[in-house]
Structures are given as structure tokens and as C-alpha cells.
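Case study.
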Amino acid sequence: MNIILSFICGVIFAIGLGLSGMTDPAKVLGFLEIGSSWDPALAFVMVGAIGVHGTVYTLFRKRKKPMFAASFAQPKTTKINMPLMIGALTFGAGWGLGGFCPGPAVVSSVSLQPKIGVFVVAMLTGWFVVNIGRYILSSRASSQSL
Amino acid sequence: MEEFIDPILGGGLIGISASILWLGSGKTAGISGIIGGMVQVKVDQILHRVLFLLGLIIGGVICTQIEPQWIYVSVERSMSILVAAGLLVGIGTRVGSGCTSGHGVCGISKFSLRSIIATMAFMCTGFLVATWMAGGIS
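After joint prediction, the assembly is written out as follows.
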């Protein structure tokens, strides 16, 4: 059941991104470029998404567990720390530079256009580099504690 | 007013997707977390990630059938700029534990201060860099 849900949610998410305009980097940059031709439309994507998800969360937050799993995923930390700030600032710079954030980039990759392909490969490389870095750091830390 | 209808409805669909995944499976619908974290996990977790990714791809194909313009990529950026942008987005979302969906939608919906701060931070540099690339405030 969980696996079916993951698939269905992926499909709905992608159609939501398409309908909202988030998959169009020209529209995203029109939103991020402040000036006389500023296009505020994409702010309403957040309004719609948080309106629905925030309401559902508020209604069901007292539940002890989700319908088809043992527990709700909990964030590893709730601290506002340096990795959070540096990571978010770096991500924003890349978003403003290219006009893509991860979801729209993955969905748009079905267009098979070279520009989106290049962006997605670079993004995957970035994810891979950080994952490898974390793995090396954690194995070094665990070998030191032995 | 009309130009705000599609963003609100599309955002609503994203909210429905995030809500089903949370209420059904207890999971967070964060793209960089689900796909970027595909290594370093157990087998049952891998299936969820792969199926969500497959759903995104199939959803993308469905988009091209509903309205080809949704997926038409017209970005006035050079290849080298897009490589730099992709690296920054990839590294930033992993180091900062989330992107527009994980922090911006799921985290804020759960009133997470950490996600609210992260969203403000990436919106700031997003506005700054995009405006700078466009040659400053026009």
C-alpha cells in the first residue's frame, strides 16, 4: 500500500508542479527577478500547497501513527544550525541562477532537452558529492570512537 | 486575478500529494530528500523512493499530454551557468536538508521554525541572484 501511495503521490505532485507553472523556468525567474515586471503569481503556489497540507496536518496532528505505517517520519534535528543556513543559502543561489529547483527539474527532464539534462546531471552530482562526503565523515568519526 | 488560479490549484495538488504521503505513509514529500537520499538506506526505503521518482516521471509525461507548454523548457541561461546552478542546488539541498518542497511546503505546513528559517534563507539568495543576473532592479 505504501509503495502504491508513493507512486500516486509522485504523479499528483508532478501534475501540480506543471499546472502551477513551477516547471517553467522563465516563470520562476520572472518571480525571482525583482523589478517593474515582477510576476508574483508563483507565490500563490505556496498559498495553495501550505493551505491544503497545513490544514490536513492541523486536523490530524494528534494521530499516533499514519494509516499504513508504524510511525510518522521525524526530522533528525529541529536545530537552526550552520549546515541548514549554508545549505539553504547555497540552494537559493543555484535556484536564482538556473530557475530550477529539484522537483520541477526532475519532472521537466521528460522533455529530454539538453539544458534540463545538463542541470539534472549537475544536481545529481551535487547530491552524490555531499552523500559521499557525509559517508566519509561518518566512517572516520566511527573509526575514531573505536 | 485569473493568472493566480492555476498556481493556487497546482499548489493545492502539491498539498494533496504531500498530505496523502504524510497521512498514509508518514513520509515527508521532499524531493531532494526522497531522491537525493536514495543512497545510504534500507531496501524497503529504496522502493518508496524509486516509486515516488517513477511517479514524478510518469506525471511529467502526463503533463506533456495535458498541456505541452508546462514542460517546455525555455531558459535563457548558458550551459555552463546551468551546470553551476545544478551543482549549487544539489549541494545546497543536501547540506541544508531540504528544498522548496521539503522545507517550503512540508516543513512550513507543520509549523517547523527550522523550515521557515531555511525557506526565508533560500528565497533571499534566490531573489538576490536572479535579480543580479537580470542586471539589477529594473
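Observations recorded in class. Residues 114-144 of chain A form the longest helix (31 residues). Chain A is about 70% helix and 0% strand. We will return to this complex in the next lecture.
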